[in-house]
Specification:
Pfam families: ETF, ETF_alpha. With 320 residues, the chain is α/β, with parallel strands linked by helices. The chain contains 9 helices and 16 strands. Bound molecules: flavin-adenine dinucleotide (FAD).
């Protein structure tokens, strides 16, 4: 079996989990094993529809009072118990905060190594040939993973999620046998951030600002409001200045985005910023400096003052 840990919102898979199932499906076909998913929470059984669409035949649904809230070690114990005794070839998860944390604990409990941020995997006898990201995605590493149970996370937004015509997965209610100490760390409360509109990671268009905005994001917000499914982001310099919340940060230590169009304004294009937007299909940069690093990385560049260009674009959109 190939077992995929998936995350969901009320039974609806998130993008990274759909991408993970897509990679896991190809892997399961390659090793001639079935693909199963494992989902947690009160609506885990509702994942059956989406998991089936992405190729899982079974969803192991963990609906357990102690596990309604995220608890990394208990989740890992559950994943390991679900995998054990079934000749599981691989345990796979999205390379999100939670997926990475759960699989790191699971790998330790299985006494196996973990390969993180995988973008491609090919079976090679009893081992796997992997391509994985290093240094925030600036480097691709080819590696061979030889283990009884291979444990790997899939780099978000690097694999296209591709649905099938398959039926919903069967549901297997799964109850773990938790041990003392598994619930040492539990998420007690989740607060939605008060940012309105489209989440940054899901926006079709992202307008973002850096130090060059001088803290004035008004025109950038107005532009985003006028574009379809658009969100406002920021560089770390802008976040460090306190101009934007950390949720808005794009980059190595922020959100990774994959919009159709990315519009960085007053952002120099440091490598730590660019690893967060390398999934963007097109980049349209606004910068006063024709020698800024972003100029060489963008598809289009407007060499001009953002405080003039962005309000002019907003005005033109309103005029039409
Ligand atoms: P600057 O580099 O100062 O660039 C400002 C740009 O604005 C310049 O190109 C300038 O020409 C232009 N400009 C100025 N005025 C105007 C104007 N009126 N109109 C148009 N253009 C103008 N950074 C991130 O963004 N995200 C991360 O996740 C991140 N993680 C990091 C992790 C580590 C471990 C480290 C060491 C650094 C990290 N950084 C990150 C910081 C990164 O190295 C850069 O310092 C940061 O991205 C710079 O932000 P900036 O481009 O807004 O500012």
């Amino acid at each position: 079996m190939v077992l995929a840990f998936v995350e969901h919102d009320g039974g609806e898979l998130d993008d990274a989990s759909a991408q993970t199932l897509t990679l896991a499906r190809d892997l399961a076909t390659g090793v001639d094993e079935p693909l199963e998913a494992i989902a947690f929470g009160p609506e885990a059984t509702a994942v059956a529809h989406d998991a089936g669409v992405y190729g899982a035949t079974v969803v192991n649904a963990v609906e357990h009072d102690d596990l309604d809230n995220y608890a990394p070690e208990a989740y890992a114990r559950t994943v390991v118990q679900c995998a054990e005794g079934t000749g599981t070839d691989a345990v796979v998860a999205p390379g999100t905060d939670r997926g990475s944390e759960v699989l790191a604990h699971a790998a330790a409990k299985l006494d196996e190594t973990m390969a993180a941020e995988v973008v491609e995997v090919d079976p090679d006898g009893d081992a796997y040939q992997l391509t994985r990201q290093r240094w925030g995605g600036t480097l691709l590493e080819h590696a061979r993973l030889d283990a009884d149970t291979k444990v790997l996370t899939v780099a978000p937004n690097e694999v296209s999620a591709s649905p099938t015509d398959d039926d919903p997965a069967d549901v297997n209610p799964f109850t773990p046998d938790l041990e003392a100490g598994d619930l040492r760390v539990q998420c007690l409360r989740t607060e939605a951030s008060d940012t309105e509109g489209v989440p940054l990671g899901e926006a079709r268009i992202v307008v973002s600002g850096g130090r060059g905005t001088d803290g004035d994001f008004e025109a950038l917000e107005e532009l985003a409001e006028r574009l379809p499914d658009a969100a406002v982001g920021a560089s770390r310099a802008a976040v460090n200045e306190g101009w934007r919340p950390h949720d808005d940060q794009i980059g190595q230590t922020g959100t990774k985005i994959a919009p159709e169009i990315y519009i960085p304004c007053g952002i120099s294009g440091a490598v730590q910023h660019m690893v967060g937007c390398k999934g963007a299909e097109n980049i349209l940069a606004v910068n006063t400096d024709p020698d800024a690093a972003i100029v060489g990385k963008a598809d289009w560049v407007v060499v001009a003052n953002l405080h003039e260009v962005v309000p002019a674009v907003v005005e033109e959109l309103d005029r039409r």
